[in-house]
């Protein structure tokens, strides 16, 4: 990473809301895995950021 460049988590998308307790990042809850992928892709494009899979139930949107 270049000096002065920051990485920021912009959103969390999950199918299991119980894994997260508050915080400073919006959390989107998907009903099923297919919706998880759709929401992640939409946010990735809209926010000009990258989607990363944390596990089968969770994606994060990161701005590099």
Gross morphology is globular
Number of helices: 1
If you compute it from the alpha carbons, what radius of gyration comes out, rounded to the nearest whole angstrom? 12 Å
Largest sheet: 4 strands, mixed
Strand content: 25-35%
Low-pLDDT regions: none
In N-to-C order, the SSE pattern is EEHEE
**Through-space gap between termini:** 9 Å
Question: How is the largest sheet built, in terms of strand order?
Answer: 2-1-4-3
Count of the domains: 1
Broad structural category: alpha+beta
- Helix percent reads 10-25%
> How many runs of DSSP E, i.e. beta strands?
4
Structure description:
The protein has one domain (8-63). Helices cover 22% and strands 34% of the residues. It has one helix and four strands. It has a four-stranded mixed beta sheet, with helices on one face. It is globular, with a radius of gyration of 12 Å. The mean pLDDT is 92.
Which helices and strands occur, and which strands form pairs?
Layout: E1 8-14, E2 27-29, H1 33-46, E3 50-55, E4 58-63
Parallel strand pairs: 1-2
Antiparallel strand pairs: 1-4, 3-4
Short note summarizing the structure:
Pfam families: YIEGIA_cap. The chain is α+β, with helices and mostly antiparallel strands and 64 residues long.
């Amino acid at each position: 990473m270049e000096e002065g460049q920051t990485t920021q988590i912009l959103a969390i998308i999950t199918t299991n809301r119980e894994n997260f307790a508050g915080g400073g990042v919006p959390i989107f809850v998907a009903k099923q895995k297919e919706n998880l992928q759709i929401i992640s892709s939409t946010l990735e494009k809209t926010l000009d950021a990258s989607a990363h899979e944390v596990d089968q139930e969770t994606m994060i949107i990161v701005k590099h």
